[in-house]
């Protein structure tokens, strides 16, 4: 008993008579929505973003690991650099302020900074 598929029905079902047509996989709108919401939450509400990423986003394990490890490594490095810069600028400003009325201001600032390094 050989069943024939109506060609009109086959075209509606994306099937060529006798051969199934494979379509490329596409992200569903809900998947795109989840990705956008997750990324925004990671940027603005990090703890909520991490929870969404782990339990709701449908991201691969590799993507989840990268999204967690990069901030853990990058944020402390940036914070350390910022702290060093702020401290250095503060020291220079303090020396400049203290040497404001000195005759040789640059020499005064240089000596002040030398004393702070000790």
Describe this structure as you would to a colleague.
With 118 residues, the protein is mainly α. The protein has a domain at 61-118. The protein is 70% helix and 3% strand. It contains five helices and two strands. It has helices spanning 7-12, 29-44, 46-55, 61-98, 105-117; strands spanning 15-16, 19-20. The protein has a two-stranded antiparallel sheet with strand order 1-2. Strand 1 and strand 2 form a beta hairpin. Helix 2 runs antiparallel to helix 3 and helix 4 (61-98) crosses helix 5. It is rod-shaped, with a radius of gyration of 31 Å. The mean pLDDT is 79.
List keywords for this structure.
118 residues; two-stranded antiparallel sheet; 3% strand; mainly alpha
Question: Topology, please?
Answer:
Elements: H1 7-12, E1 15-16, E2 19-20, H2 29-44, H3 46-55, H4 61-98, H5 105-117
Antiparallel strand pairs: 1-2
Short synopsis of the structure:
The protein has 118 residues and is mainly alpha-helical. It has helices at residues 7-12, 29-44, 46-55, 61-98, 105-117, and strands at 15-16, 19-20.
